[in-house]
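May I ask for a protein sequence together with how it folds?
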Amino acid sequence: MLWYVLYTKPRSEQKVAQRLEKLGIQVYCPIITEVRKWSDRKKKVSTPLFKSYVFVKLPEKERNRVFEAPGVVRYMHWLGKPAVVRSYEIETIEKWLNNEEVDEMEIAEFSPGDKLVIRNGSLEGREAIVREVGKKQMRLVLPGMGFTVVMNTREVL
């Protein structure tokens, strides 16, 4: 069985994941918790790591079953075929999300387009390309995984 990437309707990733689970399909929707600030309060909000995407693991013959779940739009394609994610890449995402420990890290200046190798954490050894640099976060493109990831700058090096 392979992991495939599904494109969902906007803001329906978690509901789609629940519906797919009810159909007996193995699904992974990575969730992060963010603190959102309004003028009168702060609140912790759980949001999907990848907006409008969920991962499903099923045999190739059963790929059309996912369309039984409302909210599924289509499969993401790569080079004309449905995009396949390796199991170790899914495991890496899980480890990264579950890793709460912060290692001592070196901060350096980065610019969009810079290439780097992540030296610490669950994405250690991965090559990345800097897309955007903020005060506390960086948006990195992981070419080997085909995704963009937002990381705290202290987690990169």
